[in-house]
Predict the 3D structure of the following.
Amino acid sequence: MSVREQLQGAAEPYLRQGETVQVIFTGQTASPLVGAAVMNGGLIGGLIEGAAGGNRLRIFVVTTQRILVLDAPMPRGLTWTVKRTDVVAELPRSTRLGPPSGLWYKIPVDGKRVRVHRRRFAQIREADRLAPESPWIPSGATPG
């Protein structure tokens, strides 16, 4: 089973009837160095993780109706399984997540910054491309 399929399986219980996933990708709450050390399972990673309050995985589930941000424990070693998730935030579907830049792009979620690696930038751009137009109308303009 691919990582994408595992992420979609973790998101499935949180979807509303008729809601479909458009884009799904991950980020992390701690700095990239902490994440790398923790994912490698080293002693230093464990010490840094404890000192930093823990590195958590965030799953961005972009659907036709909204954007869900789920919390899950970071995978350990080479095994990737998402066993438990919780909803961290629910954002309107019109929310723009990008444009991403740099090596690690930071998305503010629930008062914290979630860091997304550039390998996931294509998913952020796709989510923004599929977002409905904002209902905001500039001052002095008249709706079509």
User: Anything to note?
Assistant: Residues 37-52 have pLDDT under 50 and may be disordered. Residues 3-14+22-129 form one domain. The radius of gyration is 17 Å.
